[in-house]
Amino acid sequence: MSTEIPTVDLEEWSSAGPGRREAIASGVDRALRETGMFLLTGHQVPRAEGEEFREAGLSFFRLPREAKLRYEIQGQYDNGWREVHRNVGIPDAADVGSAPDLHESFYVGPTHRTGDARFDGLFYPANRWPAELPRLREAADAYTGHMVRVAGRVNALLAAVLGQPGSFFNSRARKATWTQNVSWYPALERWGQVGEGRMRNAPHTDLGTFTLLNRQPGTSGLEAWNQARGWFPVECPPDSDALIVILGDLLELWTDGRWRALRHRVPAPGARDADDEQVSLVFFFEADPQAVIEPLAAPVGGGRGLAPVVAGESILGKLGVPLTAA
């Protein structure tokens, strides 16, 4: 079994001939079958806009707690500030106990509106922008515009890898739900004594179709799992602008198990690296909330016989959000 994590250059993909495209697609397919991730370059996301969003997020996290509480989220699928919290969808919670993850997050989402207040409240919750930090909204809007564009290109790439029309996924993502967060992993000295095995982000899979992760290099980074290697660190080339594409639960179901949602985690650094601080930009992309996700039939699909779901209902169900909520 190969354990290589491929890098896909979107510009190369766009201009490649049939033979080269077939080779790229084969590498992506293999990685998604075995692990559930690949690296993405050539996406034309300006590094400066990512750094501006990262810095604006850090400015927010450094506000007094009393100020941040004014923008606190009110539910599992909501936008705003979330204090140190436990992750959801953890497959091996027995390994990490019940302690919360060592990070804070600020969440933003799309501004789609349907005119149905109950539906919009469920799937397109309003953003909570901090009045004292207009820079955060400006930076988030600029960066998420790029993420939506890149997500469309990734959808087209994944459709091509499966031998489907380029619009196969994008036609079900015209008003997709998505969540962009900026997550702060403070230096360990902020927490005081940290027990062995504590996590900055506990083992889990993501709920949507895929995630675009822009992580800041540091001594404690993303770790992924596959059957051949167990847990292993995910390395990006130095000074690389590569985004990490992480497959989510919805695409595992959509491909009927051909591809696997990535199990991943971020362990806390050791005592020697107690001053390590990181800020990650994490874009969780989903689908139109009313899209019916029919698992692909074999031989394209993996033949697991998974049941169809409605995208939005599946995601809210896993979060424990009642569909009667407003």
Could you give the order of the helices and strands? EHHEHHEEHHEEEEEEHEEEEH
Cα radius of gyration in angstroms? 19 Å
What's the N-to-C terminus distance? 47 Å
CATH H-tier superfamily: B-lactam Antibiotic, Isopenicillin N Synthase, Chain
Strand content of the residues, in percent?
A: 15-25%
For the largest sheet, list the strands in their spatial order: 1-2-10-7-12-5-4-3
Number of strands: 14
CATH uppermost class: Mainly Beta
Question: Which segments are poorly predicted (pLDDT under 50) over 5 or more consecutive residues?
Answer: 88-96
3D architecture notes:
- It is a single chain.
- The chain has eight helices and 14 strands.
- Helix 2 (18-34) crosses helix 6 (134-161) and helix 3 packs across helix 6 (134-161).
- The chain has one domain (7-319): Jelly Rolls.
- The protein has an eight-stranded mixed beta sheet. A four-stranded antiparallel beta sheet has the order 6-11-8-9, with no helix packed on it.
- With 326 residues, the protein is α+β, with helices and mostly antiparallel strands.
Keywords summarizing the entry:
about 325 residues, 8 helices, 8-stranded mixed β-sheet, alpha+beta, 14 strands
Short synopsis of the structure:
With 326 residues, the protein is an alpha+beta fold. Helices cover 28% and strands 20% of the residues. It has 8 helices and 14 strands.
Give the secondary structure arrangement, pairings included.
Blueprint (H helix, E strand, L loop, with lengths): L6 E3 H6 L2 H17 L2 E5 L5 H15 L3 H4 L11 E3 L21 E5 L8 H7 L10 H28 L16 E8 L13 E6 L5 E5 L8 E4 L3 E4 L9 E5 L1 H6 L9 E4 L10 E8 L6 E2 L15 E2 H9 L7
Parallel strand pairs: 1-2
Antiparallel strand pairs: 2-10, 3-4, 4-5, 5-12, 6-11, 7-10, 7-12, 8-9, 8-11, 13-14
Helix pairs in contact: 2-6, 3-6
